[in-house]
């Protein structure tokens, strides 16, 4: 409102004039309270505006992706169910309930919530009650008197006092502090979501690698059996004088090398199994994942998936809320230049004896405002404002870098999946050719047309192609998890019921 809203009255007073008249008519304390309430509408420091971030209109690796709008209120859902593995779903449920890293983040979130509640409580008056007894001595002014009676100057005093104090938030220090605390609590909530998503992603990557490793183990076991039969056949041919000793050595070398590769997979699988146990909060000695024959399904990525990066990634939401908190702290620092107004009221009873302690003659009370400010501090306030502004600049840079890193991760995983998909097609074709070549070579060797060294070379090539296909599948599965995590979890998002506008 402006003064024109209040037309001059008969005395020619505007709105401010009327308020001044009322203030002079009220008691001095009430007048100060009224002025404090009127001034409390303002808040020192800059209001928050989201930092500008350079965002591409679409992803380079996928046409049709739209620019994101920051909002982490989208539900992520059980995105791990995209892999169609019931045992994996159970493990993720255990992680959500028992992961100790997530529990630490959850405890930090509760601390941030408590800090926000504490900041909110500063808006209310504080009420203090004190009851005590003091024993004091005062000199009589005469050394002879003190020698004659050591207790003549001793006095007992009983006090019971109730006090109320309230700080008027004239310059917005409390409001800016609450704004910073609430933003920090929201950032902590986003950190919790980011940590949970990170741990889920790590669990899925370990589990998928373990399942592919089980398939690699079966491949090597069957290969070892085949090489064992080849060695026995070569030994029989050597004893019959058909094959030379070099063929036996080659067959044995091939068998032992494959057995060594098979043994190497044992400790690799154990490490993955132990990592999963820790992720779900179970000692590795009490956890075991049985070997299975199936590998979880690789999810299909939609061709025109909308860009949910800034909307789904909790680390970006956390970075932005840190900017909000830093911006509010600038206002808190600037309020130190202005005086603090505290209103206090106290009353109680004071007596030297218990008998008439709580009685009308022994009562006392006090009421009044207190205005206090620092006149000189050697530049401390100015330095604190500079520190708060520098901290704000740091959080802005961190927010922008987090956004850039997010886009980079998505681009990297998308191009990786695309290239791996093309590579998998070629590798499967090479595997088919290697299997056919092995079949023909073995027939030629059995017919005595070629030496065993030719069979060994073709067998090695076929095994290498088999392992390459499985390694590519493992890499594609891991990359798909990383892409989903980079997008914030899942393909689709709906506003949570409690987040509906």
Automatic annotation (TrEMBL):
It comes from the Bacteria. Residues 134-153 are annotated as: Disordered. Its main location: membrane. Residues 88-115 form a coiled coil. Residues 137-153 have a biased composition (Low complexity). Keywords: Cell outer membrane, Coiled coil, Lipoprotein, Membrane, Palmitate, Transmembrane, Transmembrane beta strand. It is found in: Cell outer membrane. InterPro entries: MdtP/NodT-like, OMP_efflux. It is a lipid-anchor. GO terms for molecular function: efflux transmembrane transporter activity. One of its GO terms (cellular component) is cell outer membrane. It holds the Pfam family OEP. Belongs to the outer membrane factor (OMF) (TC 1.B.17) family. This is Efflux transporter, outer membrane factor (OMF) lipoprotein, NodT family.
């Amino acid at each position: 409102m402006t003064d024109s809203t209040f037309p001059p009255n008969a005395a020619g007073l505007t709105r401010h004039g009327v308020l001044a008249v009322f203030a002079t008519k009220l008691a001095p304390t009430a007048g100060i309270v009224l002025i404090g309430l009127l001034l409390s509408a303002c808040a020192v420091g800059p209001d928050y505006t989201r930092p500008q971030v350079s965002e591409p209109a679409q992803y380079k690796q996928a046409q049709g992706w739209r620019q994101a709008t920051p909002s982490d209120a989208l539900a992520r859902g059980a995105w791990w169910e995209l892999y169609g593995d019931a045992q994996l779903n159970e493990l993720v449920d255990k992680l959500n309930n028992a992961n100790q890293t997530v529990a630490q983040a959850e405890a930090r979130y509760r601390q941030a919530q408590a800090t926000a509640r504490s900041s909110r409580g500063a808006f209310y008056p504080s009420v203090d009650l004190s009851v005590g007894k003091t024993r004091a001595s005062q000199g009589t002014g005469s050394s002879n008197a003190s020698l004659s009676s050591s207790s003549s100057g001793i006095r007992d005093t009983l006090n019971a006092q109730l006090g109320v104090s309230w700080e008027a938030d004239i310059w917005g220090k409390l409001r800016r502090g609450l704004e910073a605390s609430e933003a920090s609590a929201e950032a902590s909530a986003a950190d919790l979501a980011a940590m949970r998503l990170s741990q889920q992603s790590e669990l899925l990557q370990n589990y998928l690698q373990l399942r592919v490793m089980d398939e690699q183990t079966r491949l090597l076991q069957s290969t070892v059996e085949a090489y064992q039969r080849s060695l026995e056949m070569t030994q029989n041919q050597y004893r019959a004088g058909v094959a030379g000793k070099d063929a036996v050595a080659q067959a044995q070398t091939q068998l032992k090398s494959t057995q060594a590769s098979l043994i190497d997979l044992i400790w690799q699988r154990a490490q993955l199994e132990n990592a999963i146990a820790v992720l779900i909060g179970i000692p590795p000695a009490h956890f075991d994942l049985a070997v299975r024959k199936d590998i979880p399904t690789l999810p299909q990525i939609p061709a025109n998936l909308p860009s949910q990066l800034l909307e789904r990634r909790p680390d970006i939401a956390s970075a932005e809320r840190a900017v909000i908190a830093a911006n509010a702290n600038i206002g808190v620092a600037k309020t130190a230049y202005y005086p603090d107004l505290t209103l206090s009221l106290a009353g109680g009873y004071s007596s030297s004896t218990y008998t008439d302690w709580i009685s009308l003659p022994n009562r006392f009370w006090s009421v009044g405002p207190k205005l206090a400010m620092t006149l000189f501090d050697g530049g401390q306030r100015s330095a604190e404002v500079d520190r708060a502004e520098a901290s704000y600049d740091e959080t802005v840079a961190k927010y922008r870098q987090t956004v850039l890193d997010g886009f980079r991760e998505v681009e990297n995983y998308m191009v990786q999946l695309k290239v791996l998909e093309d590579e998998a097609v070629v590798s499967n074709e090479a595997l088919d050719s290697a299997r056919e070549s092995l079949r023909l070579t073995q027939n030629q060797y059995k017919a005595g047309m070629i030496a065993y060294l030719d069979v060994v070379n073709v067998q090695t090539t076929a095994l290498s192609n088999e392992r390459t296909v499985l390694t590519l599948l493992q890499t594609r599965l891991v990359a798909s998890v990383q892409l989903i995590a980079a997008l914030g979890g899942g393909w689709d998002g709906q506003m949570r019921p409690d987040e509906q506008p």
